[in-house]
Amino acid sequence: MNSYVFLSLTGFIVTFVMAIYVITLNYKNKTNRIFALFSLSLAIWNFGEMMLRIVASARAAAFWDLTASLLGWIFLGPLYLHFVLTFTKKDKVLENRGIMLLLYGPSLVWAGLKAFTNFLQAGVIKVYWGWDVIIAPGFYFYTVHLVILSLIGFYLLLSVWLMGENKIQRYQARAALIGTFIPFSLGLVTDAILPIFGFHFVRLAGLFSTIYVLFFAYAILRYQLMQISPQRAASNIIATLPDPLLLLDIDMTINSVNPAALKLFNFDENELIDKPIGLLFPAQDKLWQANDIKNLLKSGDSSTFDSELITKDKALIPVIISYSAVKDFSGEAIGVLIVAKDIREKKELIEKLEQSQNEIWQHSNRLNAILSNMLEGIFIEDGKHEIKYMNHAALAILGDQIGNKCYNTSLGGSVENPVCSVPAIISRGEARFNSIFESRDGKSIELIGSPLKNPDGSLSVLEIIRNITDKKKTEDELKKKVAELEEINQLAVGRELRMIELEKEINELLKELGREARYK
After folding, report:
1. I need a surface site. Which of 1, 147, 307, 328 has the fewest CB within 10 A?
2. How far apart are CA 441 and CA 118, in angstroms?
3. For the segment 114-124, what is each residue's pLDDT rounded down to a tens digit?
4. Whole-model pTM?
């Protein structure tokens, strides 16, 4: 077998393996997908060159040359620039269909010219390493087009390498630039410039592809190129977290969303991925201002605040947002992690609670107003005789005794024999207690007690006290007057009865004397 076959075989194997490996790292990431297509095109090109070094007939060589062209090297330029635009986060320009057509349109033209004309290449020729193609004048234009696209890609990578804000991205851009510039420059000489000038030199694309893969493999292992992303760092968490979760790139575009977020927002995944976060949050939200994000990524802080999310139907959902910077293995911030807690139910409960509290407050104010304006003194004692509440009338009778024991007030009594109703109500279980006694300061006090059940199930005593000193004095005076009246009345009645008896005696004496009765 031709020993040159192994150069192309090696190039095919390493580029094909690289394509498969990168797509498995993160198949949802656009950068990985475009890079995998770029590597696959290189793999097909290498495979076609390998077959050119194996087949015996010119017809078979022409077939494999056409295959390697249409599926391989013709589309390397636009695929490479597409990858660089995506990697450097400048692929928004490709949302314009005109720009996308400008990127891939010329390659479609080259493919048509290659398939149906001899504008690019004029057939195959037998050489010492197998078969080679005959370069036509049109190949010059293709080469210029390829160089222009590659130089744009090199410039973008160089810009990120020298001026990128993210250190790890600068390292990745450096590896990508060197890894593509060296094989491109060498391949341009052996596979384009020399053939243009009529020199049939063995094609070394396979060997140079190996160099490209080595650089990218180093970048993947050392700098986590196309591997460390917010999406990959928390893929398991994203899928299982019950609360909505979003992962943002450093340019604040949505990298990943979990099923809970899609359900809450009512979006499909493809409607959110690679879209700006402003799609979901109000524009006035301070978090997404550029300076705040730069400070967040620089400090690596985390925070929580109240906000609102915008659904696909433009409805606003109240949420609690928790966010923090996502860092790579080197400690460099590579994105932002956002977790949103739907608080609609909580907010409704809070509103109902506030409404209930307002109602309770209003009822409490009414009750306090009633108690404050009652003429009777009202106070509440717990089971240990401690006074917990007094209304205005009670304060006027006893003074401020809140916190004191009832038997330490002017009411009187003692620890062993208190005058209050606590023993009767709480200890003996009576439903009502009523007593009248004289206080320490000589006042006549009427006390009425009844049980009061507390929220925890324990009992207190609600007591009504009245200062009946004046009333009792009046009642005593009334009793005295009534007694005097009754005494006078009794004297008057006795006199009347005696007079009646005397009249009867006089009439009887007059009768014995034979005289006429004087009193009738």
Report:
1. 1
2. 128
3. 999 999 988 88
4. 0.52
